[in-house]
Amino acid sequence: MARSGLVLYTVLLLLCSCFVLTQCAPESGLITLLPGFNGSFPSKHYSGYVTIDSDHGKRLFYYFVTSEGDPSKDPVVLWLNGGPGCSSFDGFVYEHGPFNFEAAKTHNSLPQLHLNPHSWSKVSNIIYLDSPAGVGFSYSKNSSDYRTGDIKTALDSHTFLLKWFELYPEFLPNPFFIAGESYAGVYVPTLAFEVANGIDDGVKPVLNFKGYIVGNGVTDDKFDGNALVPFAHGMGLISDDLFEEVNRECQGSYFKPLSSTCESKLAKVDQDIDGLNIYDILEPCYHGPSISTVTATNDRLPASFRRLGETERPLPVRKRMFGRAWPLRAPVRDGYVPTWPELLNSNSVPCTDDEVATTWLNDKDVRKAIHAEEQSVAGAWALCTGRISFYHDAGSMINYHKNLTARGYRALIFSGDHDMCVPYTGSEAWTRSMGYEVVDEWRPWTSNEQVAGYIQGYGNNLTFLTIKGAGHTVPEYKPQEALDFYSRFLAGKRI
């Protein structure tokens, strides 16, 4: 073989190796071990920072898990948790990451990590992004960046994506999706809108954007705000009499009471649901450290009732504590959205036991292993931060969804049907309000040969789906079912 031909062959071989083995990714970001895990990773993991504003020193942190299937062809999915102010390590640790985390057995030890058989990395490459700056391990050297909102967050996340794909160019041909839950019901469509506009405007690199996924997502003040009362009645949490009184006095407007009489009726609704776990009404509500006294009351129930709402995860879900529903009736003023810690301090939302994630991510060896910079966190790392001031300045998401679906992007809107934080009744109502033709009439969908929930398909590739017995964070409660609908949607298969 001639020398020139040999050189060309060598270059092509290296390019092919890079693409197949994903070795073009920055080796400095490769994670080779994780404290608490013994064994081999089922796929490659990377983490690090992308600088999105060098003048301000604004850097967003990501953790990237390559697919356990075929990383060169499987979709790339960006995952966003909400808050606003919550780290996407929420999804990584508690929901669909590559590991299940077992709580530390002693005070000074770390959680133990076990491979998650229902990880979303079974079928996709997935990027867990801490956004906006100030959340999780993402930070800025200019504190003014911690005053932000929907629109700025979307612009920054778009900048992150463009720069991230420059670092990982071998993934540019892969189908790309954006996914998230809760307040990411705002993050996802606003970011998708920026990505779609960038593609239309010829922004480089060109992302192979195909669609997006939103779970139990905040969408629209009116639809979300009016969702709680019908949900509470449908679930048997308030009486027929009270439901009729509320309807008569409020005339269907629960989010903005029309009169003091309406307000008093809503107060009765609040009183009736006050002791429930708003993230999953089937799950116990933990009021303090004596957890056993709460769970013991279930012992007299038949086994079939005790199993209602239980997770199929081998490890328990987070223990959640008492509080009122949010964001449905949160004190949002002049567009300002309180972060979780602010609401916790005002005793208006539940406390959350995030001991596993907090213990693991505050360990210096874990920080070193995942390339998290010390300067990124002022004090202890927290799953949901109070460091940012956040403004809801993008308005209703319905117009964003209309724009994106009309342009041909696929959208899956899913809801755990026992979540009272962002009830499925609101998501069902706003998807129906889009006015699209019903192309797949309401029907059950199955997982493991069992009815797993219900689905309705609309024109313009819009799908609404419920997950039976799941709470606010669906993959945490129903991991097998979540992986099933996720993998089918990404593959374009019938759910």
Automatic annotation (TrEMBL):
Q: Where is the signal peptide?
A: 1-24
Entry-linked PROSITE patterns: CARBOXYPEPT_SER_HIS, CARBOXYPEPT_SER_SER, PROKAR_LIPOPROTEIN
Give a GO molecular function annotation for the protein: acyltransferase activity, transferring groups other than amino-acyl groups
GO biological-process terms attached to the record: proteolysis; secondary metabolic process
Identify the keywords attached in UniProt to this record, alphabetized: Carboxypeptidase, Glycoprotein, Hydrolase, Protease, Secreted, Signal
What is the annotated localization of this protein? Secreted
Q: What is its EC number?
A: 3.4.16.-
Annotated InterPro entries: AB_hydrolase_fold (IPR029058), Peptidase_S10 (IPR001563), Ser_caboxypep_his_AS (IPR033124), Ser_caboxypep_ser_AS (IPR018202)
> What's a GO cellular component annotated to this UniProt protein?
extracellular region
Q: What is its main location?
A: secreted
Decide whether keyword Transcription is in the record.
no
Family (UniProt): Belongs to the peptidase S10 family.
Name of the molecule in the record: Carboxypeptidase
